[in-house]
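User: Here's a protein and a ligand (oxa(dethia)-CoA). What would the complex look like?
Assistant: Let me lay out the input and then the predicted complex.
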Amino acid sequence: MHGPQPAPTPAAAPAAVCRAAIRGLGVYVPPRVLTNDDLSRMVDTSDAWIVERTGIRTRHIASPDQAASDLGVAAARAALVDAGLEAGELDLIICATTTPDMLFPATACLIQDRLGARRAGAFDLLAACSSFVYGVIAAAQAIEAGVARHVMVVGAEVLSKLVDWTDRSLCVLVGDGAGAAVLGPAEGGGGVRAAVVGADGGAGDMLKLPGGGSRMPYSDEVLRQGLHYPRMDGRTLFRLAVRVVPDAIAEVVRRAEWSLDQVRWIVPHQANQRILEAVARQMGLPVERFVSTIEHYGNTSSASVPISLWEARGDGRIADGDRLVLAAFGGGFTWAACALTWGR
Ligand code: UT7
């Protein structure tokens, strides 16, 4: 039969992808500052060695009664104010931490309770120093998938509570602090564009805390052997970082369909100023394009990227429309990179 045919049903319009943007930042560091000279009175080290080998001059150290959640709550509250949100508007809290208050419950749940974020789900994410960048990527995915509208990612660390203060190879590096980011749906041109996550569990021995888990629960023997302290093969980790981080940055820039020249700032994990310099050299980039805050904070593990973001936004380096790459590596061995355009 011929005659007028019904108009074809229009193909369903593809659902608009809701891009996620960082809508607020907050930082808290404990007031006590420990200098390299202070350390040289505690272990066999010197200001000259620490500055030359790491770039660190000072770090903040938590008071005896401060745990990760205390620092995290303070940073999260500041991030909520910055975002103009109430705690009750959060749908999810991700706490990126290697130094949780306790094995369980999750530090994210302790933060949820103290914020009064009654609607929010909460979990901890452990990818050592990469945890915050992993967390931002997970938060963006949750928002883009419609699982959550507002997600708080808190990097909160009190490494000073876990290190052996007689081990000069590690204790001079660490600092305590917390940084938080609230992510929500992007309203303008800002937002997360691309992500890379990676791990090589075979290299896990380079940085680990063997005691106190289910493999080696605390015992007199564990304490006697000092297995309750973190141990690190710094040289190997250094080399691995310099190999992996440039590739992760290049790959996330490619996935974002940007060129490296278009990236205004790289906001890296702050493990060692010499690592930043080596990564910059390897990528043919001026080291000035890498935000560096290690001088004043030391290595704050998963707090180092949000603290650096907050610093660089605060002093006007990062402005709306800037293209950024967050990049981190750490124990596991893990790494992550996230390309985002700054702005809500
Ligand atoms: O957050 C992610 C995980 N961490 C990292 O990514 C850290 C990566 N690694 C590093 O940053 C560096 O390897 C360190 C800062 C840890 C060490 O610097 P290095 O230039 O690799 O030094 P080294 O381990 O090769 O040690 C050189 C010397 C050694 O003495 P000898 O054997 O040459 O006599 C160490 O015993 O420096 C000695 N040393 C120190 N001397 C003064 C180690 N720590 C200290 C210290 N003060 N604090």
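Summary: The first strand starts at residue 20 and ends at 28.
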